[in-house]
Amino acid sequence: MHPTAIIAEDEPILRAQLKAKLARMWPDLRIVADVGDGEAALEAIEGHHPDLAFLDIQMPEMTGVEVARCLAANPAVRTHLVFVTAFDQYAVEAFEANAVDYVLKPYTDERLQATVDRLKGRLAMVPPPSQDLDALVAQISAHLRPATEALQWIKASVGNQLRLIAIDDVLFFQSDEKYTLVATRDLDTLIRTPIKEILTGLDANKFWQIHRSTIVNAKAIENVTRDFRGQASVKIKGRPENLTVSRPFSHLFKAA
């Protein structure tokens, strides 16, 4: 039975190059999908259950590390992850420490061949060795998001006044293309700070990203419901909104 793989790389030229090189170096490997963003990668992995997934670290929608975080929470997925990276030696050491394979950009034939040979060896083992994705996610996330000062207050203009909103009073953040809504029990206001920038200053144990445009205060969640399609939504205490949980973040609300 031929091994299978997906490729997730947001640069079409690099994606085609990797696909062509793998076809030449590993003719038995079947590429069942090649995609350009992290959300599509997660869908392809869950849909095809490939033996391998080549994931670029920096991708739209979700990074390769965020895809790994979702897969780490899903024991049914046994896909072996291969990270494609232009990162420095720090990140490479993190991959090696957690028994995770990686390909360095630009793709040299020698480096890719070494990866192919190692992957063939891993797939030949019975059972294949596991990857410590939880530890990897923690290490690489720290590298992707260097330590920043924790947010204590949100500064917002309300009329002609500057309001300081304590971060613990925020129920949720929701962004559109230009503004981010800061919702509290008593006040809704708009700020210009992008939601990705806000996310770096939040405690991930207290504030959960449930959609690429939505972050919720976990203590403010009243309940989580699913419609007939399985689409989850979050009800916030004391608020009328039902906030959609996008598929990449649905693992947050799966029963243990």
State the CATH class of the largest domain. Alpha Beta
What is the molecular shape?
Answer: elongated
- Topology as H/E string? EHEHEHEHEHHEEEEEHEEEEE
Instruction: Tell me the number of helical segments per DSSP (H or I, 4 or more residues long).
Output: 7
- Read across the widest sheet, the strand sequence of neighbours is 2-1-3-4-5
Instruction: Provide the CATH architecture of the largest domain.
Output: 3-Layer(aba) Sandwich
| CATH topology (fold) name of the largest domain | Rossmann fold
Instruction: Please name the fourth-level CATH homologous superfamily of the largest domain.
Output: Response regulator
Total beta strands: 15
Give the uncertain stretches in residue-range form.
Answer: none
For the record, the count of structural domains works out to 2
| Percent range of helical residues | 25-40%
Q: How many whole angstroms does the radius of gyration measure?
A: 21 Å
Question: Between the first and last Cα atoms, what is the distance in angstroms?
Answer: 34 Å
Main beta-sheet annotation: 5 strands, parallel
Q: What does the average pLDDT come to? A: 85
Q: Which structural class fits the helix and strand makeup?
A: alpha/beta
